[in-house]
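PT: before anyone asks, these are the final sequences, not the draft ones from last week. 1487 residues across everything. Please model them as a single complex and drop the result in this thread when it's through.
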Amino acid sequence: MFASIAAFEFRYHARSPVFWVVSVVFFLLTFGATTSPNIQIGGGGNVHANSPSAIIEITIILSIFFMFVTTAFVANVIVRDDQSGFGPMVRSTRVSKFDYLFGRFVGAFGVCVLAFCFVPVAIWLGSLMPWIDAETLGPNRLRDYLFALLVFAVPNLLLTAALFFAVATATRSMMGSYIGVVVFLVVYLIFSSLTEFNPDWLLIGAYFEAFGGGAYDFLTRYWTASERNNDIPSLGGVLLANRAFCVALALLALAYAYRRFSFAERSASPRQLRKQEKLKAKLARQAPSLVAVLPDSAPRSAWWARFMAQTRLEMRQVFLSPAFFVLILVGLFNSLGSLFLASEIYGTPSYPMTFRVIELLQGTFTIIPFIIAIFYGGELVWRDRDRKMHELVDATSIPNWAFMVPKTIAVAGVLLSALLISVFGAILVQLVQGYTEFEFSKYVLWYVLPLTVEMLTLAILSVFVQALSPSKYIGWGIMLLYFICTITFSALDLNHPLYLYGAGIGVPLSDMNGTDVSGAGAWWVRLYWAAVAVCLAVFAHLLWRRGTGVSFASLFRQAPRRLAGGAGLVLAVGVIGATATGAYVFNNTNVLNEYVTNDEAEENIAEYEKKYLRYESLKQPAYTRFVLTLDVYPETRQFRAEGEADFINDTGAPLDSLHVRFFDPNVIVDSIDVEGGELTTFDEEFKYRIYTLSPPMAPNETRSLRFESRREQNGFRAQGNDTRLVHNGTFLNNAEFAPLLGMDRNGLLGDRTTRRKYDLPAELRVAPLEDASATDNNYVGADWVTADITVRTSADQTPIAPGRRVSDEVVDGRRVARFVSDAPILAFFSVQSARYAVKERNADGVNMAVYYHPQHEFNVETMLDATERSLAYYKANFGPYPFDYARIVEFPGYARFAQAFAGTVPYSEGIGFIADNRDPDEIDYVTYVTAHEFGHQYWAHQLISANQQGGTLLVETLAQYSALVVMKSIYGEEQIRRFLKYELDRYLSGRGSEALEELPLNRVENQGYIHYRKGAVVMYLLQDRLGEARVNAMLADLLERYRFKGPPYPSSTELVDGFKALARTEAERELVVDLLEKITLYDLKAASATVRELDNGQFETTLTVDAAKVYADGEGQETLATLNDEIDVGVFTARPGLGVFEADDVLLFERRRVTDGEQTLVMVTSERPVFAGVDPYNKYIDRNADDNLVRIE
Amino acid sequence: MLQLDNVSHTYANGTQALRDVTLTIPKGMFGLLGPNGAGKSTLMRTIATLQTPTAGSIRFGDIDVLQSPESLRERLGYLPQDFGVYPRISAYDMLDHMAVLKGIASRADRKATVETLLTQVNLWDVRKKAIAGFSGGMRQRFGVAQALIGNPELIIVDEPTAGLDPEERNRFLNLLAEIGENVVIILSTHIVDDVADLCPRMAVLAAGEIRLEGAPRALIEQTRGSIWAKTIRRDELADHRSRFDIISTRLIAGATVINVLSDADPGEGFELAPGGLEDVYFSTLAALRRSEAA
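LR: through. Structure below.
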């Protein structure tokens, strides 16, 4: 009995549309995540798309999502019989309550599992798709899929199924069950955010986070990429306990449901009965209005009424369907999730500015509309047939369009609701995050309006395809194919917006510059596809099938006659519209601009490298002086540069050729003239010129060159629209308009796979540390020059370039400012122009100014404070600041970075300007980044390192160090733990994504996770051990020796030697070597701690420490090393690094000798401590930094 | 007047459902009689513009039905043999919706139409109930109601009395008879009595061909004197079947009555039967069977 009930239930659900919809939804979601870089669910980096960790993470995330689906199935089990009126019949049979209830539950649960199986199938199928880069894939192992499915998916599905089965039993309503889901979700999200960010709770989260995500994250926190790609955690310990907890919870819910469920129908309450009686009486009282002769129909004048009636009917059918409810909830949950979790930097959130929020929404909204359009297109077009209503309605005189248009509107209506609900979700998130500057106009203009047109276009396609397809399933198949095209076309480099129906041009958003980069172009493309859609709609109208056996031949025969009326007119409008807009778009993308595919662009760069990289080591003169006149025309997005530059032969030998090149593809060279040079080789395509110098340039001779160049914006491009020269927020650097002398590697292809594809060596490694010739060039690739830059722009914008501003005035309606640098600056400068608000402050002879978008005032004061504190510290400890100005200049968030030019720091609107710095518990990365960039005013703009291994140690690592000591001076040593912990985590996880080999700091090859992340931790530890003042003195000395110095440039050895000289003991010396010249990992663990009160009222803490040290090679192979070091130990009354942890909380903090293996340390304090730890502030590179502290028993 | 000329239809699977159907259907009730699978529904759907015939032409008055189906639909009331309904919609709302689809735009007209028709088909009391929960008979009555909306000039009812109880059937036939004078009504059925009771003209369709056409009365007249009946035991049936050309057998109070077609008295206890439309119908089908066997 049980089995047959379960089997019946299984078959019943497996045939329901909900089953098919969710199966397809989850299939596509997963398939998209596996095969398209545009869709992300967990994973990323060097972790393979089909690695065990990717499979498990996707499985966990989607199994949480799946609760909307399991609820639909299991609640239906309870609710169905009452709704259909079958309840009494079924329940009066001899079936037992157990069989009835659990037979059905098992059947419904089985269907949930079956539907979920589409997820692993999608990963597997996705991994077989030909367009995926083979480097991002590993072997498919059945073990990984089964582990994810059986250990995570099945128990999780059981949990949500059981839980909401119980809720449905209690509420006996679908709506009640879904309210239960929402409540559960809220509780779950609160629980997981609590456990995720609170290290004390991490283990609790691992045990009790019901879906196993906490346990999995806990176990694999520091897994390297290779471990993530190959290993699965063993099913024991925390994981087993967690899974058992999950199943136990499910069984508990089922037991509750069994107890609660009763066969007896709840009889209507007296109130309901009275209501029913009343209704009946009311109906009986109404008399029909009868007529002897029925009114005639007037079909021709009834078009509006028909259209409205059909639309109402379609909408009603759609909006009341359960699938709609499920889809909307999934969509809302999806967008809310990404909004809540997104845009954190250093764990600090950003203000949910509308432009950021919209970009996030667009990201999460790529798949749901497709699913809705595909599903409802089929459902609506075929509904009359599926319901066998078609003969009835098709024989009425209602015209075809009055079927087609309302169906399209209904599909679009669902899409719009999903769209609006996401806006609602976004506003909710903004509210929750305390942001109340609602910019409804941006939501409408940047999001709702464009997407509405796109949705309508999509809806029309779906209806059109279904109208012509011989069956609903074939129609769905065609639409699915179309969906796959939208992914594969970009993978196949077919990115032109005119290639694929409904394609578009990407529009980057910015508060500063709005949608100006390509917004207009995107609208033209949108209109083009909308016009095509109009044509499709007319065809759908002409060829709309009515009845059962209407042949296409006869429809085609009738088509011309039907075209005669309004349909022809609409088609004409569509055709003319499509032709006109299509021609306009084509003219812009292919005539005014060249359409370059990504492959062609890559091939070009590869060609460039093949032709010219051989000149890389050719000795070339150095620039010494620049005089530039730069004209920015923001309204027309045009730019003109006119310049004169002096260069000196610093090579020590006579030079007979000069290589002058413009690398940026957007620059147009109008003229160039080299003193004493004759143009002998001119490669027009690559703008590479070789001049023969006659007479040859003698050593130390100076000559000059003049050039004129420009940049223009002609209409819009298919892709790669210029984000640098814009209406408001232009940000150009000299490489984008001025000539470079000699060849370098900037801009060459970097990706290994791509390089191999074009027959280039797989990697371009940096010159080795031992290569003395590499010290001829510096890391930035620019010479020390003086500069005189005049920038002209429109009167309402502020022009900015590096240098002392000697004049700033409006001449002939243009604002003209002149910037002069007498102190040497690197021939690497920025030009910016926008409508800025300015906040200035003078301190110690330096004029500090922040140029910002008026809407982004949040952190301007913080930036000024940070600048002031940084400069004060650097002047006192490193040496003089060479400028009398310090500028921070905002630029549109098309890129998210800050960059240091001489005294001038362009700073993206996407980062610090909109950081939400209100919570003192979060990392103040605004100050951190600002201090880092002004650190570069010393480490880069005064001392610049050689372009070889370890080069970035002297630039980026020292800037990190500068920022850290500034942060320490502001926030105190106790709070610095958060930074260090964060940087340490990033370093450890960055190791997992290494593609070449990990190198020690003194040989770092521009590897961010090493020179930024590891660098910060290492430098902090070194200054801690060797003394901040001593380190600063050493750095000041280094700076003194190399300030503004040309070749040979200093190498990392200079700094390493400096640290070695500071070492006072053998232990310190070993530490310097371990940290800078080796890859060293520590494992310091506070295993346990006990305290006892002494007779004198003091407290004696005994801390058991477990310690180890290993050396790793570039591949991550480890060898055990001997640890014998002086390491911090301490006891506290609060957990360091959490909440407001202050100096008062530190009872004892001192260095003790720690060796490898287990050992006990005894500490005596006057107060009773709560926490004890070894290296409590995470100064060491500790593979598990979370076990350094222990709560004292 | 509806005129069909050489209408043929062959389905994609090769089944020839209609062969050279030529019919002239005047105003008034027209009965289309035929056994199951004779092609009645195909013919009905073809006339109702829901199917394109492979060959032939159909005209209704001035309208070329195949060329401009829209014009016919404006004059058409159609009750398909089998139809479903939308979920969650009451009879009243659905009829109202159908009225809009048929082009009754004004709210007042619709109210009059819907309420009059609901009363006529006796669904007024259950007007607020979902049609999805209706019994077969109630659903059929709803179908009739919607076919009558807007005073169509051509009404096609395909097997309308199937599933109706006798009382409902009477009510339904009366309803049709009231309208029947000035419009063309095609009543497709396999129940001979429906045609006999109502239709001044009729045709018999079998195996896709028109086998017989005329006024029932005249047709009955033609067979008069050639139908012979005999009451036999069940075990005699096989013997009689081999010796006589039996056109129909039926049970009356447990005994088997056979009818045979013969111009002369076949003897053996056969008696001249009064002859009805049923005999006409069965003799036509019997003739068809004979010709197929030959």
